[in-house]
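Quick start: what a row looks like.
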Amino acid sequence: WTKTFTLLFCTNLLMWSGFSLLLSTIPLYVLEVGGSESLIGLVVGVYPFAALLSRPAAGYLYDRVGRRIVFIVSLAFFTFFSFGYIVAVSVLLLMLVRILQGAFFGITTTGAGTLIADIVPRERMGEGVGYAGLGNTLAMAIGPAVGISIMNHYGFPAMFYTCGILMTLSFVMALFVSYPKVP
């Protein structure tokens, strides 16, 4: 639990928390903006599909351009598109935000795992990666219920702002990480 590992753990936890707030609320938001039940699967599905398509490019960018710059820039765009839900008042805009944020989710999460592997000593790799994954699991376990609660009590805009704030905190923490030089 070095300073760098702890910052990356918290960055990842906040990033996945913001993401997981959307898991249970986006289907309801599709209906809110006038989409049909048959569009829910499409709107939900474009996100992981965009993430899937961006991951091979992410690996290349992290190795060629550099881990710090790619992680910070992708997390900045991921954060920016988190606030895009606030203005996504139609299914088309919502799809666009989901595709763009999904692509940067793929790049950012690829980097988060790579950075963890870069800083954890080889003899403790399983333990370090396991703890890092615990943050993702914790966020995924709590986030959907928190998202529904915020949405029910305060509405979609408050839930989207909460998501954006969590992502912003994640981005700010990432700025303070000491990124190792990797040949």
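That is the whole record. The CA atoms of residues 10 and 98 lie 24 Å apart. The longest helix spans residues 125-154.
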